[in-house]
Amino acid sequence: MLVPIVAAAALMSYLVWRLHQQRSMFKDLPGPPHHAIWGHFLVMREIADCLPPDATPQLFAHLMRKRYGLGDFFYLDLWPLAPPQLVIAHPEMASQVTQKMNLPKESAIMQKWTGHILGKKSMVTANGHDWKIARKSFTSGFQPQKLLQHVPSIVDDALGFCEVLKVHARTQDVFKMEDLSARMIFNISARVILGLKCNAQRDDDEFLELFRKQASLAPQDFWSRYLYDISPQRHYQKWKHGRALDRYVGRIVDERIVHVPDEKSKYHAIDEAIATNRDYHSLSDKETRDMLIASVKTLIFAGHDTSASTICYIYAALSKHPEVLSRVREEHTNVFGPNPSSAPAMLRADPKLVNNLPYTLAVIKEALRLWPPTGVSLRHGVPGQTLKQADGTEWPTYPFAVLVNNCATMRREDLFKDPERFFPERHLVADPADPYFVPKDAWRPFEKGPRNCLGQTLALMQLKIALVMTLRTFDFAIVYENGTYMYQTLDVTAKPSQGLPTRVRMVYSI
């Protein structure tokens, strides 16, 4: 009887000591009101109560800054459910973390969120040698000149998207735009990266469904990202679907290794990666093969997931800003002529035309500023590496998880005039004296530094082509009912609520 009592007392004493130690860490650190017992849980609850239950937590830092008048960075104490955090919300501070120090990724936490989908060697979570090898392997396949070769096939997939939209235009039904756009972008990603022709727009594609089964098992709210999943069934499902996904991708990788394309046809990203590793490693090596599989999964899943959401945000914004839509359509007419049906042939003949759309690019950039699908870059502090203010004051990065919250940065009033306004013109301003000029490094949806998004050129290219193919042919009406509205939900990345219910109307026959 005495042993359990002593054990319980010892445990209680340890927890009290640990709590005191943890809460004391934040005594002299900048942040919102801190409670000696609850840390910042009460603050997080207040912020969460301002948002729908399924809203993405990347908005929390922005709302917290406004409510409590916080500065360029602040610390959060969420122990025991989350590690101590340093939140960055300023481009100069962010550049210290991502470019100057290039702090390592917070791999353990990120593996909890996406490990079952992307794998342990994913280039978004790996550090050191593993990351360098993965990044180097796929960099050449995503160079702009390489990607221009894929414009004709991207046009084909965009036209397939138009065919599906025409069906919805005839029936005048309400559909989920996020699902539709994700299917198109998945086709593009699979073709560019693997040379694989999927049929996701017209049918249930096995490859896409494998990804979706895994994504459905990801945490759907803020706290479940940090809590351990106690469901044996969910762990089994993650293992089962993950194994099937690895087998699917592994089979394709093995086929590409055996059947080496000639130099002329070697323009898919996987072929470039295999060629790079053929020079330095044995391709039969399990470690190299696992890296290739994880990288392919990362590039296809992250690429299609984020770009699909961005298309939705653009259509939603243009439906509310007809003056912007009119100017985009005017640019498309100036580049491709008055007949929208001529654009596909012109792009196939001269892929570089995709680079002659500055206002369309500005619209994309403004949508990414207001609704970034991934608005947080998660790093881990390092002993001796400090955050430096302009006055020379230094603040610790260790032992904190460092959240570079670009969502909060890109809504700052001192960086973006009228930050809540959808105003693409700001991205065309070149004069620093203009109030709408975007400061250096302030726009960062693809992050900055060595670990910026490898697929950003492809993302912008496919978005521009999709808009060229659709904006002069269709009108998009966003159809939320019963008092609901568009906001960003947490579904692996930040997606539009309810999948963006949409109705389309044809304005030009193609």
From TrEMBL:
Cofactor needs: heme
Single GO term (MF): iron ion binding
Organism of this sequence: Pseudomassariella vexata
Positions of transmembrane segments: none
Phylogenetic classification of the source organism: Eukaryota, Fungi, Dikarya, Ascomycota, Pezizomycotina
Binding-site list for heme: 453
Pathway: Secondary metabolite biosynthesis
Top-level taxon of the source organism: Eukaryota
Keywords: Heme, Iron, Metal-binding, Monooxygenase, Oxidoreductase
Official protein name in the record: Putative cytochrome P450
InterPro entries per UniProt: Cyt_P450, Cyt_P450_E_grp-I, Cyt_P450_sf, Cytochrome_P450_monoxygenase
